[in-house]
Fold:
Amino acid sequence: MAYRFLSSRIVPSSNRLSRRFIFIFTISLCFMYLCYSILFCSGTIMPSQRWEDHRCVHLKNMGSKKLLQKSHYCTISAKARVLPDETRAVALLNLTGNQSKHSAFQKTQDVVDHNQSNNSNSPKYGNKKLPNALIVGVKKGGTRAVLEFIRIHPDVRALGTEPHFFDRNYDKGLEWYRGLMPRTLDSQITMEKTPSYFVTREAPRRISNMSRETKLIVVVRNPVTRVISDYTQTLSKKPDIPSFEELAFKNRSQGIVDTSWNAIRIGMYILHLENWLQYFRLSQIHFVSGERLITDPAGELGRVQDFLGLKRIITDKHFYFNRTKGFPCLKKPESSSQPRCLGKSKGRTHVQIDREVIEQLREFYRPFNVKFYEMVGHDFRWD
Ligand code: A3P
Structure:
C-alpha cells in the first residue's frame, strides 16, 4: 500500500520506470540498514570477547588451567589467541598456563602480557631460550607440585606440559625444543619438567650436550609409596591390569621382586643417579623430599630457590593446607578469586596393599636407599 501511495504521489502514475527506481532505491536502503546493523552488532560482541580473553588470562594467573582445579573455563579463547610462531608448539603440546607476578598491582595490560608470555601461547617480550633448569624426576614424586610452586616466582618461566624432549622427541632437535619454551627475559630462568628423564639412559648425556651447566632437580619419595602411587595411576587408566602383587614379584613367597617392572625400577634411585653422575657434578643436582614437600612446602621451595640462585620470594605466606584435598595448596593471589590446588590426579587415594607386601618391598629397597643416602649426603628416613 505504502509503495502504491508513494509512487502515486511522487511519481506520475504512468511512469513505470520511476516506480521501478523507487522500488530499487527502497530495497537498497533496507540492505544498507541491514549491513549497518550487522556491523554494529559485531562491534558490540567483539569487546565482550576481548573481555572474556582478558578474564581468561587473568584466571590463568592462578596457574596451569589443565592441572590446577577450577580454572578450566578459558581454554577456547586462549587457544584462539595463539600467535603464529607459537601455533606449532601449542598444537603439539596443548600448552598449559603459567603464572608469575612481578607485583600484585601492575597495570592490567602488563598482567595480560606477562601471563601470555608465561603461557607460551602469545608472549609479547623476551626470547625463547633453552632451559637452564630441569625437573628430571621422579615420576609420582611430587614433580608437578614443585613446578607449579616454583613458577609463581617472578624470575621463573616454565613450560606447563612435559615436552619429553630428551627421551621421546630428541630427534626433533634443539631448535624444536627451544621453540616450545616460553619467552624469558635475560634475568629469568627457563624451566620444564619431564619426570621420565631420570630413568632414561641417554638423558644425562643429551642434557649435558645441551649445556653442562644445566641445573637438575629430582623430587624423591619413599620408593614403596611411589610404586603404589604409580600403580594406582596406571590402574585408574587401565582397570584390567594384573594385581599389584602379580606385577611386583617374580616369586611372592620367596620375596623375589620383579625389577623388570618399570614401576619398581624407578625407585632404585641410586642406579639412575650413578648414570647422571657420569655427566654432572652432584652439586648440580638438587633433591627435593617428596614427603617434606607435603608437610613443609615453603621449606622445600626455599631450598629450591637457593639452588636456582633465586631470591627467596616463595614463603609460608604462599601456602595453606587444604583439608578437603589433604594437601598444601597455593593461596589465592590478590588478582584472583580462587585458591590453587593441584588437580584430581595428584593426591589420589592409593590402592590397598597388604602390609606384608609393603614390608617385603621395604626390605627390597633398603640397600638401594642406604647407598642413595650416602651418595647424596642426606638421610630421607624411608626405612
Ligand atoms: P599421589 O597421587 O600418589 O598422592 P607427580 O606430580 O610427580 O606425578 O607426583 C604426584 C604426587 O605429588 C602425588 O602422589 C602427591 O602425593 C604429591 N604431592 C606433593 N605435593 C602435593 C600437593 N601440594 N598437592 C597434590 N599432590 C602433591
User: Anything to note?
Assistant: The mean pLDDT is 78. The CA atoms of residues 35 and 41 lie 10 Å apart. The longest helix spans residues 16-60. The first strand starts at residue 127 and ends at 128.
